[in-house]
Amino acid sequence: FTKPGEGVIVQSPVYYPFYSAITDAGRVVANNGLIFEDGAYTMDLDGLEALAGKPENTMMILCSPHNPVGRVWNPAELKSVAEICAGNGVLLISDEIHCDLTRKAHSVITTLDPSYKDNTIVCLSTAKTFNMAGFTAANIVIENDGLRKRFQKRRDTEASGGMTFFARIATIAAYTHCDYWVDGVNTYIDGNFNILKGFADRHKGLGLRLIEMEGTYLAWLDMSGLGLTDEGLENFMNEKALMSIDPGHWFGAGGSGFIRINIAAPRAALEEALDRFDAALYNL
Q1: Which residues are CB-neighbours of 36 under 8 A, at least 6 positions away?
Q2: In 177-216, which positions are buried (b, 16+ CB within 10 angstroms) versus exposed (e)?
Q3: Contact status, residue 110 vs residue 144, Cβ threshold 8 Å
Q4: Which of 51, 142, 170, 172 is the most exposed, having the fewest neighbouring CB atoms within 10 Å of its CB?
């Protein structure tokens, strides 16, 4: 849906494969960085309007819920994004892969106004909710006939739209028989987050600050108060705390000084990791 050299808008800090997907295709990253104030993230809608108004920027990839900052965007925010994109001829790709894993109500962007369906493509998958990434099965919802035909033509040309029989049956089973799993896993993730929050609160004196996780299972921890460089922070977590984390600087502008922790894990494993983390902080 874009041409080489055109700009694709993203909102950093954001899931880092967005950047490589854009640049590897010969497109240009147009960054509409999130605003971080008082420990919370909001969208820079004025900045988005300015970027969308530039003719070279023809697409936006929205992360909703947002990875890694954990925001579940509210309807007003989503409407603003949809209307800015539509008003400036910017095609909106809404990555909603974490939409089932939330602490507050998530709005699928195309349900907020029927007109949004003409300029929005929604990306979904069972990969996160049901731990099925290995099935390589995803759902692309394109309700505009013209856009869908363009997508199908390119997909068929590249022979990239196949799905295994096993993946198809597993996807049907997940979506039709596994509500209990979604409820259970959200409750479990909530419990893990509360444990991590208690840990961060105990170390406020060192400058640790855990960002509220409205959605996803990926905790975003501000460790800038330790005064370490990004390399130093990464080394500290890997070599001293013995934890495998995603360094915040991987996620682009605004990620420096943060780490992302996957808390979709057995509680005993999380608690063991936090014991190592605690010892490393004590000996910092």
Answers
A1: 254
A2: eeeeeeeebbebbeebbeebeebbeebeeeebbbbebbbb
A3: no
A4: 172
3-state DSSP call for residue 74? coil
- Select from 94, 153, 100 the least CA-distant residue to 120: 94
**198-234 pLDDT tens trace:** 999 999 999 999 999 999 999 999 999 999 999 999 9
Three-state DSSP at 226 gives: helix
pLDDT for 190: 98
Local structure of residue 248 (DSSP, 8 states):
G
Q: Are 106 and 99 in contact (CB under 8 A)?
A: yes
- Answer for the pair 131, 189: CB distance below 8 angstroms, yes or no: no
- Residue pair 128/174 in contact (Cβ under 8 Å)? The answer is no
Q: What is the distance between the alpha carbons of residues 96 and 108, in angstroms, rounded to a whole number?
A: 8
> Which CB contacts under 8 angstroms, 24+ apart, belong to 41-45?
41/66, 41/69, 41/71, 41/211, 42/77, 43/11, 43/73, 43/77, 43/80, 43/81, 44/11, 45/77, 45/80, 45/81, 45/84
Helices and strands counted in the chain (H then E): 8, 12
Q: Are 60 and 8 in contact (CB under 8 A)?
A: yes
Predicted TM-score (pTM) of the model is 0.96
Query: What letter does residue 214 receive in the DSSP assignment?
Result: S
